[in-house]
Amino acid sequence: MLKVIQLDKTYGSNKHSLKAVNFTAQPGEVTAIIGPSGAGKTTILRSINQLIRDDSGQILLDDQDIRQANKGELRKIRHHIGMIFQNYNLINPLTALENVLHGRLGAKSTVAGMLGLYSDDEKSEALALLDEVGLKEYAYQRCDQLSGGQQQRVGIARALMQHPKMILCDEPIASLDPKSTKIVMDILRKLAREKQLIILINLHQVDIALEYADHIVGINSGAIVFEGPTDEVNDGVLQKIYRQADQPGAVVTANEN
Amino acid sequence: MKTNYQSPQQFYRQRRLRMLIVLLILIGIYVGSMLLVKFQTWNSIVKIPAGLIWLFHNFIPTERSISYLGPILYQLWRTLLVSISSTIVASIFALMAAILGAKTTTPHRSVSLVIRFGASLLRNIPVVAWAMILLFSFKQSDFTGFLALFFMTLGYLTRAFTETIEDLDAEKIQALQAVGANYFQCVFCGVLPEAASTLTSWVLYMIENNLRDATLVGLLTGTGVGFLFDTYFKSFRYDAAGLIVLLIAILVILLELTSTQIRRAIA
Ligand SMILES: Nc1ncnc2c1ncn2[C@@H]1O[C@H](COP(=O)(O)OP(=O)(O)OP(=O)(O)O)[C@@H](O)[C@H]1O
Ligand SMILES: [Mg+2]
């Protein structure tokens, strides 16, 4: 279970981006974070694996506080947290297979990782994972020759190669067409169910969030304004989440983005 | 600069005016500098045809020049080797310096500053000056030419490599940090593969460039095809000197064609 407690983040000297953020995400469930642009969704996700250092609070993954980890411990924790991005962030000139194997870097010695010395088991597992996301025949293709939806699936396979407890997804479908969106979201939901992973997704598309998420976290101007099961989300809740901070009462339509 | 105009017509009128002013300034600078160096444009232009005819008459290789082909090709080969080897060795050091110096991969800001300063120093000393300085310690030899090219190339490539690395998408490297990769793994599995084709392009470009510079350096260090050119030239064997120029041009073009092919293959 992921438990975020009183997480505060200030960029620079006065930009208060997260204000006492509390929420939980359960294994086996898809948890979606929704909120207007600039609300702090990316900041939350990147604080969880400490890509950005937060100012105060606790981030408990299975009761271990990620914020208290030293450098070596953090590397081990990160090894078990997958992350996928809007821009896929694969290493372009390398093949799909090599990118998937990067998921092992956190568990390898420095030299073995640098030189790409992977065991036969690791290689077979990478190929099996590509098969699982439907990309076996693209294993030896350069990643920049794959479509966006295919690249995102390579990203998922890379995350799975980490044997993750949790996968963080920062707007994984924002650049995808409806068909690829469905493929990617179906895979993520299946992973939550079958492997009991914690799936935490930042989403702009409210309809997708309502369709796929079990648990919804609504954020506005750095503060959590709603947390609960998806069926408790109604128009009133959505208005509260998408209310613009500088114009009290003004409502932005929920699926503007 | 004014940003709101009353009408598009006014905007275009003002822009035309600005371009006219820039043009007048450029013409002014040209005329001013010509007067300063007492260079008479018209007289010089008139002399061009006669000069060209003289050049063609004397520098066109003849059947007699073929006998020089052997030594020329040998020196050309040595010059090519010096330019390739100096570029390759320099690019290895430049790559290490660039990784330490690029803002995105530097271990510390001060290291980055030192490397930038050093590279700028190496780069801004002309290669001819390098050769003359190094002549004191290493006398006239291929090695002096090698070192002169090496230092200049090191400065140049360090800067080019640093900028290449800094231009990479930082999120891709963060994605590797997020899987738990450490510094060296991020560099070897992320930065280098992403940058490889651009870095190779720079190396190929520098080899072409260094072949031209190597002939110049050879004049000073008394080696290679540059020195041969000097010898022929000073003993009035202009046709042989012309043959050298022709062969250098052919080699440079061949080199360019090859590197275009290589670039295309790795793109
Ligand atoms: N590196 C940074 N430096 C300063 N301020 C930042 C930085 N990153 C984000 N912010 C600010 O923090 C706030 C939250 O940004 P964040 O990127 O987390 O929003 P988001 O909800 O992900 O938005 P979007 O939906 O547009 O991706 C914004 O006001 C943003 O301007
Ligand atoms: Mg974001």
From TrEMBL, chain A:
The gene is phnC. NCBIfam families: ABC_phnC. CDD domains: ABC_PhnC_transporter. SUPFAM superfamilies: P-loop containing nucleoside triphosphate hydrolases. It comes from the Bacteria. Keywords: ATP-binding, Cell membrane, Membrane, Nucleotide-binding, Phosphonate transport, Translocase, Transport. The lineage of its organism: Bacteria, Bacillati, Bacillota, Bacilli, Lactobacillales. One of its GO terms (molecular function) is ATP binding. Gene3D superfamilies: P-loop containing nucleotide triphosphate hydrolases. This is Phosphonate ABC transporter ATP-binding protein. It holds the Pfam family ABC_tran. The keyword Signal does not apply. PROSITE patterns: ABC_TRANSPORTER_1 (PS00211), ABC_TRANSPORTER_2 (PS50893). InterPro entries: AAA+_ATPase (IPR003593), ABC_transporter-like_ATP-bd (IPR003439), ABC_transporter-like_CS (IPR017871), ABC_transpr_PhnC (IPR012693), MetN_ABC_transporter-like (IPR050086), P-loop_NTPase (IPR027417). Signal peptide: none annotated. Residues 2-246 form the ABC transporter domain.
UniProtKB/TrEMBL annotation, chain B:
It comes from the Bacteria. Residues 76-256 form the ABC transmembrane type-1 domain. The chain crosses the membrane at residues 20-36, 80-101, 113-136, 143-162, 182-207, 238-257. Its main location: membrane. It is a multi-pass membrane protein. SUPFAM superfamilies: MetI-like. It is found in: Cell membrane. Keywords: Cell membrane, Membrane, Transmembrane, Transmembrane helix, Transport. Gene3D superfamilies: MetI-like. InterPro entries: MetI-like, MetI-like_sf, PhnE/PtxC. Belongs to the binding-protein-dependent transport system permease family. NCBIfam families: PhnE. This is Phosphonate ABC transporter, permease protein PhnE. It comes from Lactiplantibacillus plajomi.
